[in-house]
Design goal:
single chain; 178 residues; seven-stranded mixed β-sheet; 5 helices; 9 strands; globular
Length: 178
């Protein structure tokens, strides 16, 4: 069972970089967590415990490019689930399912290999951070379009002032809020 102290240990490792990547942005850097094996392992346990508690058994863990790839595979192994990457357009071989989504200035495309998620599979989508919610919303649509059932969208960090959660229709949980 995850405690608030465990989550606080993770939060203590996260750094803030003002004015990165541009003025007015406070970048939340999760990479120091990865440099501390004890805390990184604790974070993987917290993510897996959160899924067990909120969802139960899942079939697929989806990780979003790129930092979702850091946590997703390890959580999937802990839960005995498959791992599926969702990537930017043109990064995956073979036939791919696609979804276009809006950015601040234009659009982008997410893809997953078309046979990566089967109809009726229970899916949890993992990423490091939820900001405006656009990428998580797009990933949820892609998984749903492929026939998967999104049971939870799970992030380590949520930037609550940006209200990204309001764009999501699936269950959502964040471990740390700023």
């Amino acid at each position: 069972m995850t405690s608030k102290d465990d989550i606080e240990k993770v939060k203590e490792c996260i750094r803030g970089f003002p004015d990165f990547p541009k003025p007015g942005i406070l970048f939340r850097d999760i990479f120091p967590v990865l440099k501390n094996p004890k805390v990184f392992s604790l974070l993987i346990d917290i993510l897996a415990d959160t899924i067990r508690t909120r969802v139960g058994q899942v079939d697929v863990i989806v990780g979003l490019e790129a930092r979702g790839f850091l946590f997703g595979p390890m959580v999937a192994v802990k839960l005995g689930a498959a791992f599926v990457p969702i990537r930017k357009k043109g990064k995956l071989p073979g036939k791919c399912a696609k979804v276009e989504y809006s950015l601040e200035y234009g659009t982008d495309v997410f893809e997953a290999q078309s046979d990566a998620v089967s109809a009726g599979q229970k899916v949890v989508i993992i990423d490091d951070l939820l900001a405006t919610g656009g990428t998580m919303k797009a990933a949820s649509k892609l998984v749903t379009d492929m026939g998967g059932e999104v049971k939870l969208c799970l992030v380590v960090i949520e930037l609550i002032d940006l209200d990204g959660q309001s764009k999501l229709t699936q269950p959502f949980h964040s471990l740390i809020q700023y």
